[in-house]
Design brief:
873 residues; mainly beta; 17-stranded antiparallel sheet; 5-stranded mixed sheet; 8 helices; 48 strands; 6% helix
């Protein structure tokens, strides 16, 4: 075994999802020029003019009659072929899509006069693409015609689901679920977690650290959208690391000033009420209310006509909801330690349907909370109708007469010597003091727990990923296109977004946390025609994502009050999740808001790429390299839900101190056992009120590989910070070989390298001796595993990699041999009419990294996967 297995178990960090090579977003136009006798003609000037910007690109057909114009910005073009002595042939309305490879063949005739032949290219001419890859295109006109106001406002990527090749394994999974956007969504038969979202030739996938699936770093509004191209099955060495890719081209300015202003309003004022709200007696409950405003303003035009253009867009989303929430709280008697019940039955609320079995349950209250004695016992005999009162702390000498049972007289030896009174620290009484009062009996058990319905107002969705739900959003987008001259041009785009929500609590009293993200995307493309047959394109990209959840303790408005509310020991806050008993159906972990974690993440991805296109005879060669530098910094006071930098206590009873005295002997007629029914619920009430703890957890950690004698904790830094790094490199070379005016072969080879990740500050951990050392005492292989006797030393960990005491040791060996071929063809079948039918086929091997786990306390490094594509369309 290798160190891969070792680090998989020991590395306390997170692996990346690394999508494919950032394919150029520019289009390529190519074809042949021949005369009426089908003889190929060299020296023909082919000109492509962008009808929106007036920018002109030219090429000459070579000695084989072949021309090639790479590096064209997507848009509508007029393409003409001109040679002295021949008629000028012109195609109008030629639409070049994002990263499209379009073929236009010209047939020119000898000119008797100075004549021009003009042909309008229809949408069917998309079939003339000379690529072997299979995919679909969503043009700007389709986006304008389709509704795009969804849960997150107007997001173009929601429309990608209308394209063929996308399916949901389980449509019942909510859209806000990361599972739905990643593993539950399939693109061309693979998980959307491995699909790259590319914007203007640069990777802009949101799911670098988390499996978000088909989502962009920033929301892409339809008004800034030029075209979406989805490659379902690539046969192209330029496209790798996965079997699908979504390519988005953003809008550019033109020679005309154009602008738009849109205000979308979604309001639930005309929605009907819910069945559950009408189920209650009396006046139906208030229906949920939602109000979502989205505003968009965009403007574009020339800075210098035919030379420099701009496009800008501002977008905001302001969602607000009001919904009824009905948390379970203690009834007044239960808050004073008095448990009420009827003999032989477990308590049920007003909606409880009488059931028998091992835990017979029936409704014991009416809609107003008045006790409702059962008519019969579970065995069918008449019930005595007596409402029992029992104290959880000791013998009760009287039946309380006051509604809150405050006149209960408890004397004698406590039932449980370890739990004799209400929590003496005062914390439980403090929580009971802010607990909302009972106002309905639709939840809980009716007599001891019930509901406290209140109207909760929420701005945002309490969603730190800003996915699948509406958060408060502000976004600015800017794109500049500049043509230095006919040979050199540059395009740059930038988007910045801030999305946040206001945290809410389970009770009206809570200490609020919040969630926010500030993603941004920067793209720069520089294209140079170095010669009539040689074109170079350089690209730089930066995409930064991050999910952040400042907890209640660091909220500037309520942080001091939150710290004062909770117990504190030696400078470390203590939060207690008390009374975590299912049959009691109440827990104090709803104060404040969770308890909520305090975490921050920033994951920038920097990419540098360069591609060069060279036309030689009937060959269109293209090669390129790319380097990516990824950092993911994660600072949090949490490591899974049960471990925090502050101390976290869990209520209930432990095996060394079980609850005593709660049984049918001391409480006649009490139904259930220590694990079921009313007996279990009463034990939970005692545990809750006494502040009983069965377990206390606290997170502490090492922050330096050179100091192994002490741990850091909340008093040193309330956040544990880890930064994971990785570098990847890619290279490709391909040849689009035009064997015939109707047949193109696509041949290529791609190489991918995934660098071994490491944790900054020398904190990459692995077992001494490699992965086999995980077998420890039993030996060094599965052959020795789980057998008596010692065949190996105990497992020991060491710090490895950059910045550690062992800088030359890596988690696993570098993998340099990831070569994937791509072979395909595109044949325009002439028998059915020129340009009407195209047959494509191909085969490709690609490599991508798939993390085993992206969340949880332990993060697993990447596992290399190989994928094959076979197409025949």
């Amino acid at each position: 075994m290798s160190r891969f297995l070792a680090t998989a178990a020991a590395l306390l960090c997170l692996s990346f999802t690394l999508p494919g090579f950032s394919q150029s977003s520019n289009a390529t136009l190519s074809g042949t020029v021949s005369d009426a006798a089908k003889a190929l003609i060299p020296g023909v000037s082919v000109t492509a003019t962008n009808t929106a910007t007036g920018v002109v690109s030219t090429a000459l057909s070579n000695e084989t009659g072949t021309y090639n114009i790479p590096g064209l910005l997507p848009g509508v073009y007029t393409v003409s072929a001109e040679l002295s002595g021949f008629q000028t042939r012109t195609y109008t309305d030629v639409r070049l899509g994002n990263a499209a490879q379009v073929r236009l063949n010209f047939t020119v005739e000898v000119a008797t006069l100075n004549t021009t032949v003009e042909v309008t290219a229809s949408a069917d001419r998309l079939l003339l693409e000379s690529t072997s890859s299979v995919g679909a295109v969503l043009p700007e006109q389709a986006v304008a015609a389709l509704p795009t106001v969804g849960l997150m406002g107007s997001d173009t990527l929601d429309l990608v689901r209308t394209l063929p090749g996308i399916s949901l394994n389980d449509p019942r999974v909510p859209a806000s679920s990361l599972t739905n956007r990643a593993t539950n969504t399939m693109v061309a038969g693979i998980s959307a977690a491995n699909v790259q979202v590319q914007r203007d030739g640069v990777d802009a996938t949101q799911g670098v650290r988390w499996p978000t699936g088909m989502s962009s770093s920033t929301v892409i509004n339809p008004d800034m959208f030029g075209e979406v191209r989805m490659i379902l099955a690539p046969v192209d060495a330029e496209v790798g690391r996965g079997n699908a890719q979504i390519q988005i081209q953003t809008k550019s300015g033109t020679n005309q000033f154009r602008g738009a202003a849109v205000w979308n309003v979604q309001n639930s004022v005309l929605d009907g009420n819910l069945w559950a709200n009408k189920r209650v007696s009396g006046v139906p409950l208030t229906r949920p209310w939602e109000n979502q405003h989205e505003g968009t303003v965009s403007v574009g035009g020339p800075i210098i006509k035919n030379k420099t253009f701009f496009f800008a867009l501002w977008n905001t989303l302001q969602p607000e909801t009001r919904t009824l929430t009905n948390p379970i709280v203690l009834t007044p008697c239960a808050a004073n330690g008095i448990f009420r019940y009827y003999d032989n039955w477990s308590n049920g609320n007003i909606f409880q349907v009488t059931s028998g079995g091992g835990t017979p349950t029936t409704a014991v209250v009416d809609a107003l909370g008045n006790p409702k004695p059962p008519a019969r016992n579970p065995d069918g005999t008449p019930h005595n109708g007596i409402l029992r009162y029992a104290s959880v702390f000791g013998p009760l000498l009287n039946a309380p007469a006051r509604p809150d049972c405050s006149d209960a007289n408890v004397q004698g030896t406590p039932w449980d010597s370890n739990r004799t009174q209400v929590d003496p620290s005062g914390y439980v009484k403090k929580v009971l003091g802010v607990m909302p009062p009972v106002n309905n009996y639709e939840v809980g058990d009716g007599l001891n727990t019930a509901g406290s319905r209140w109207l909760q107002t929420r701005r945002g969705s309490t969603n730190r990923y800003s996915l699948g739900a509406a958060n408060i959003r502000q976004q600015i987008n800017l794109k500049i296109d500049h043509n230095f001259n006919v040979r050199h041009k540059i395009s740059a785009g930038w988007s910045f977004e801030r999305s946040h929500d206001d945290g809410t609590g389970n009770w009206p009293f809570y200490f609020a946390g919040s969630d926010f993200s500030q993603p941004q995307v920067l793209t720069v493309n520089f294209t140079s025609a170095l010669s009539p047959t040689l074109v170079n394109e350089a690209r730089f990209g930066m995409s930064r994502t991050g999910t952040n959840s400042p907890g209640p303790f660091v909220n500037p408005k309520t942080g001091k009050a939150a710290l004062a509310f909770f117990p504190n020991s030696q400078g470390i806050p203590f939060l207690a999740d008390l009374g975590n008993t299912p049959n009691l159906s109440i827990s104090f972990n709803g104060v404040p808001q969770g308890p909520a974690a305090d975490l921050y993440e920033s994951t920038p991805v920097y990419s540098l790429a360069d591609t060069m296109s060279w036309t030689r005879g009937t060959h269109a060669f293209k090669g390129g390299v790319e380097a990516r530098f990824i950092k993911s910094k994660y600072a949090a006071d949490i490591d899974s839900n049960n471990w925090h930098a502050w101390a976290l206590g869990f209520g209930g009873e432990g095996p060394l101190a079980p609850i005593q005295g709660i049984n049918s002997i001391n409480m006649p007629g009490l139904q259930g056992t220590a694990a079921t029914g009313n007996s279990f619920a009463m034990r939970g009430l005692l545990s809750l009120l006494s502040g009983s703890l069965r377990q206390v957890n606290q997170l502490y950690w090492i922050d330096s590989p050179n100091n192994l004698n002490s741990f850091d904790d909340y008093r040193v830094a309330h956040l544990r910070t880890r930064e994971l790094n990785q570098q990847t490199f890619s290279a490709f070379f391909k040849d689009d070989w035009k064997l015939h005016r109707d047949l193109t072969l696509n041949l290529g080879l791609r190489w991918d390298y995934y660098g071994v990740p490491w944790v900054s500050a020398g904190l990459t951990a692995a077992p001494v001796g490699g992965g086999n050392a995980l077998f420890g005492y039993s030996g060094r292989s599965f052959a020795d595993w789980m057998k008596p006797g010692q065949r190996g030393d105990l497992t020991q960990l060491e710090f490895i990699g950059p910045g550690s005491p062992n800088p030359d040791v890596q988690a696993w060996k570098k993998d340099w041999n990831n070569f994937g071929p791509a072979v395909g063809f595109a044949w325009q079948v002439p028998r059915f009419g020129a340009g009407q039918t195209t047959v494509r086929g191909g085969y490709q091997v690609s490599f991508f990294a798939r993390p085993r786990f992206r969340s949880g306390r332990r993060r697993w490094p990447q596992q290399l996967n190989r994928q094959r594509t076979r197409n025949l369309v």
